[in-house]
Amino acid sequence: MIKTLILGIGSPFGDDRAGWLVVEELEQVPAVREMVAKNLLTLEVADRPGINLINWLLSDYQKIILIDMVKTNLEIPGSIYKLQASKIIGFSGMLSSHSLGVSASLALAKELGINIANVEFWGVEGSVALPESEVSQAILTGVSQVSQKILADPELHL
Amino acid sequence: MNVENRTTKIEVPILARVEGEGALDLEITAGKITKCELRIYEPPRYFEKFLEGREPNEVIDAVARICGICPLAYQAGFSNAYEAAFGVELTPWIYDMRLLMFLGEWIESHYLHTHLLAAPDFLNYRSGIEMAKDYPNEVLRGVRLQHLGNEILKLLGGRSVHPNGMKVGGFYRAPREEEVAALIPKLEAALKDAKDVVEWFSQLPFPDAEVPFKMVSLRHPTEYPVFATEVITSDGETFNINDYDEHFREFHARQSTALHSTTIAGEPILLGPLSRINLNFDRLPPHIQEMANATGIKWPSRNMFHSIIARSIEGYWAIERALEICRNYTYTDKPALEYTPKAANAWGAVEAPRGIQIDHVQLDERGYATAIRISAPTSQNLPCIEANLRSSLETFGLDKPDDELRLHAEMVIRNYDPCISCSAHFLTLNITRQ
Question: Chain B residues with CB inside 8 Å of A55's CB?
Fold first, then answer.
């Protein structure tokens, strides 16, 4: 069995909670809790993993699953995307100590020669990510779909 | 066209590798800079206003949200202010844990800034990512050191971003001895890394440019300053933080949503690592003074580009001091002191990674805030940055192409590691040549 990290990325603002909500859903699943207890699965949430993502990539996880809200405006809210890390490192993102985004951190990791082939990214198309805003029904549907897809991942043995 | 007769406007609409959003408007007329303004256009965040009417620990939790990189500067500054207001004398245990946590912030902030934001400037890379191709070991070393700082923050703050372990009078919990002991081998290993960083940075090519500004820092009675109540300047002045307003003034500049600060007479003031090391060199342990002298720099230095070396020396000191605290750690079941709220006016100050953070609270009899003032180091440094840009660009050569001027301007600005989001609020360059 492989050791996996599932990292939900988000903020308290409306649909931006998507990554956190997927982790919350997974935490309720007995098979997930069992794998966590066996130290084969780690569930984490972060608001900006930034450069810490490098340290996770350097640790002993054989697979890292990142979940975050995305706003492409190409699909309707609640739509889900599955991408390999190599597909998102070209995304624009400011490189500053306050906002070293997921794509910039993965791009840095690649230049450092760190293997990112084991990083999988799940995105949920969101619409509203403002302070005080509620999570939309559409995002909740997308969150459940991502949770189910992760639970069905044969590599995780859940 | 003859350079002497033209006016050039250079616009840097978004400055990369700094925190927050702002722009630089530069106008060059007949070979002279006629306008040099850092335009801080991030919207005001109104922290000072919405913290009014809140109880002390609510303020301590809320101010951590001002910044993702230096949240502790605000938490510690306000804790100091409240503790001064309520007459709380910290126990050595609480003081050491506050210092350990703050050193964690210096470590994560300094190594992230120097490796990913500043070093690429000196080595002619557009970004830390591009530099990582040729300097993977160095960048990884910086990442390791940065992460160690975050680990310290997480230990005492529960999490590395927006930590919430601190309260007025101490901490919500004391870490277990084994948790602190686990940091010791990591800090020991980090000392070698940190020494190597100082040596690496000392080999960088530094532009020859001196700044004339009044340097200002805190002064601790016995050691390198992190928390202190005494302020010193390069002009030999010494005063208590309670008298800050008698020496410096904050004012609104038309181009900025962040307040600016100068001396009462209107001179720019320079806060941050270069001022700290210049004014407190004698407070570094002798072997670290030797390390600093071995870089070939004659301290005190007035070359702002030496800030990257100052940060690396401070990083080494911070790791060594953190190690000392961890080795001496014992658990306590009293991680916080009780306090009695009362009406008061009080000041708190800390040396944030970017310079002095000054906080002032006015409290009612319940200890609830009736007025709050937050003076972040970047906003205090803004007039200095503008003045530095004028002199630095003139020395660099105003006849250089716009792109070269823009890059040099960004490099000058990054020496200050400005945090615009903190100061309320970085860089777009707009250059006009006529």
Answer: 143-144, 147
